[in-house]
Amino acid sequence: MFKQSLLLGAISGILAGIASVIYQKVYSGTLGADFAALAKPLNIVITCFVSGLIIATGYWLSNKWFKTKGEIIFNLVFAILSFASILPAFAFKLPLDIEMPELFPGLVVPMHFFPALAWFTLKPLFIKTYEPYNKVFA
Amino acid sequence: MKRSFFTIAALFILATVFAFTLPTAWKIAEKYSISFSTSGVSGIFKTFTGNIIFDEQSLATSKFDITIDINSINTGNGMQNKHAKGEEWFNALKYPAIKFTSKKIIKTGVGYNAIGDLQLRGITKETSLPFQFKRNSNGGIFEGAFNVNRNDFKIGTPGGEVGETIKINVSVPVKK
């Protein structure tokens, strides 16, 4: 279980990182707001990868501690934390030589949801969790 | 013929003397900096324009006429920028500029003092701005630091998280 969730965390983290870098390119190309000096592509991928590993550990711990309700609690906490993580992006103070700080949250806020998006998208491929569902509807 | 020659010569000499006594009109060079800081917030104004006429040897005819664009404020945070331009603070829609027009410039022990009218948020107050001027090969640089009490200009409400005394640092390279 731990290995599976760790593998899922690693792969979804890398995918979230790649998606974030692509989004950054599109964002700066469309709006002309270049924050690449602040959010370097390699740092974005590493951050997403590490986030994926933390998420995987959290998923494993949640299922270990709360057994059958672990999945529900994990999903709820994951969603709340993803939402909560966008607040610092609004309060973040950029170096004064960077133009258009107003556009910075528009870049990073969607990125904060990419790990969750990648995790929930890939999870059925790694962890089969429809047993309780089958029990209810069988 | 002789008379007109003397007239032209006299005019030429007068013009030459006058040209030497005129204070220098400086052009504002790039990489100037107008920064402000107080507890809770700090930032810069990115755009300012003005006429700078200054000569250390002719302070009586020296003059500053400066306009700072409020909309060019940058605190490094988008929400703070919007807040600063808002009605409670600078009210950039109604008062888009900070203006300073000097009335006299006097020599002090460490530099100079420009005494003039500072207009901020529609309120004009006589203010003394201390500064130094250093000449260099390309022109020179004006540097100054002074404090402004935001309550004098009804910027924001008294008290609160943002300090009332705002420290302003100015560094303006100029060229001829």
Q: What does the model show?
A:
The complex is a heterodimer of chains A (138) and B (176). Chain A has 138 residues and is mainly α. Chain A has helices at residues 2-31, 41-66, 70-84, 87-91, 104-126, 131-137. Chain A is elongated. Chain A starts with a helix and ends with a helix. Chain B is α+β, with helices and mostly antiparallel strands and 176 residues long. Chain B contains 2 helices and 11 strands, in the order αββββββαβββββ. Chain B has helices at 2-21, 78-85; strands at residues 24-28, 33-38, 41-45, 48-54, 63-69, 73-74, 97-107, 112-120, 123-135, 139-149, 165-175. In chain B, strands 1-4-5-7-8-9-10-11 form an 8-stranded antiparallel barrel. Chain A binds chain B through residues 90-96, 98, 100-105, and chain B through 35, 43-44, 74-82.
Care to give the gist of this entry?
The complex is a heterodimer of chains A (138) and B (176). With 138 residues, chain A is mainly α. Chain A is built from six helices and no strands.
